[in-house]
Amino acid sequence: MVGCAKSDTKKAQIVQNVMDALYTRAVAAHLHEKGKGPGEAKAGLRKICKVIEAEYFAETQKTVKLSSSTLCQLANGRMPKSQSNALKG
Fold first, then answer.
1. Are 32 and 45 in contact (CB under 8 A)?
2. CA-only gyration radius of the chain, Å
3. Is 89 a residue whose pLDDT tops 90?
4. Considering the entire predicted model, what is its pTM?
5. Going by C-beta distance under 8 Å and a sequence separation of 6 or more, which residues neighbour residue 75?
6. Where do the domains of the chain lie?
7. Torsion 50-53-58-62 (CA) sign
8. Alpha-carbon torsion 8, 13, 18, 22, what sign?
9. What are phi and psi of 65, to 5 degrees?
């Protein structure tokens, strides 16, 4: 509805969806880097996070902070928070 502020819960949900999408892009980039041959230079988790953050800033002019440890856990099979909460609901 026009003229109504979003609730704090809705704002948090939107932020979580954006973060999940960014982590999905980062996991795909990490898996691409892992698939490189033995002679090729591979980007680490921190570098991938910085690249995704810079791409997002270029698209939206908003800053986000991605965690390399969260990226590592997601790449190793951990479920994103939004999917986990959807299964509970």
1. no
2. 16
3. no
4. 0.86
5. 27, 30, 31, 45
6. 21-32+42-80
7. negative
8. positive
9. -120, 115
What percentage of the chain's residues is helix, strand, coil (to nearest 5)? Answer: 65, 0, 35
- Residue type present at position 37: G
The upper half-sphere exposure of residue 51, i.e. CA atoms within 13 Å in the direction of its Cβ, equals 14
CA-nearest of 2, 8, 20, 3 to 74 is: 20
**What pLDDT shows up at residue 2?**
76
pLDDT per residue as tens digits for the range 24-79: 999 999 999 988 888 889 999 999 999 999 999 999 999 999 999 999 999 999 99
Task: Please enumerate in sequence order all residues whose Cβ is within 8 A of that of 22, keeping only pairs 6 or more positions apart, or say none.
Answer: 52, 53, 56, 64, 66
Q: How many CA atoms lie within 13 A of 47 on its CB side?
A: 7
